[in-house]
Amino acid sequence: MTDDLVGRGLPMFLPAGYTVWQELENYIKEKERARGYLHVMTPCIGTVNLYKTSGHWDHYRENMFPAMEMEGESYVLRPMNCPHHMMIYANRPHSYRDLPMRIGEIAHDFRYESSGTLKGIERGRHFCQNDAHLFCTPEQIKSEVANVCDLIFEVYKDFNITDYRCVLSLRDPADKKKYHDDDAMWNHAEQALREVLTELGIARLRKDAGLRRGRDRKAGGSRCPCCAGRRQPEDRLQDPRGTAGGPCAVYAGSGCQGSRGRQHLGA
User: Fold this and answer.
1) Is pTM, for the whole model, over 0.85?
2) What would the pLDDT profile of 166-222 be if each residue is shown by its tens digit?
3) Strands, DSSP E only, in 100-195?
4) What is the rounded CA–CA span in Å between residue 121 and residue 110?
5) Cα dihedral 89, 95, 101, 106 in deg (nearest 10)
6) What is the C-alpha to C-alpha distance for residues 5 and 3, in angstroms, rounded to an integer?
7) Whole-angstrom Cα distance, residue 252 to residue 260?
């Protein structure tokens, strides 16, 4: 339910709905634990300096709630979880032997969506996402992406989701402001994505060069998972083998460094 007294775009789950929520959360956490995910819990706010350090403040501030001042520090409701997860990873030194490291969280986030775009739990100002950041060596990218795809396809099969598409979303190489300026890193990551999708039998259907960034979310012009920038849709893909038993409305892009895939539960 929603109520304007609580706030527009701030849905609340009643007992029956939250029972379904809990079942879904238990279901996906069990699957992730079986695949080596380490679940964490992080706060729903952070300092403005945290988001300046991560780069989100410069690139995504217009979609964040205004900062709150307290005892000489500025805090903001988090719109994504990437900075918190990066801090968890940086909490101690890591050897290459520790990798891959898969950090997962059922996380609550807040984004300042304009009132005209709000739509129930489909699009709100508070939402919850089943988020994950996978830390790995360059040589492990393909196996980690394959693992994420297998998990997503397994979930779709369990829920008998069969009407689907896959979209490989890539950066805009001409946009040096919204994207980290390291073409070699991006090219390596994006090529790894292409290769693993081909190896999984997810065939390329057509080049989708006609879409402009941000013009059509449903057509693939979506923001990257951490929303530090926007990704440029390149290829529409499908699963000809039916291994998913269903669709992949997944944007398997390398939208943020360290983020190798995520699956969404609820809003």
Assistant:
1) no
2) 888 888 888 887 788 899 999 999 999 999 988 988 854 433 433 333 333 333 333
3) 101-110, 126-135, 166-170
4) 13
5) -20
6) 5
7) 8
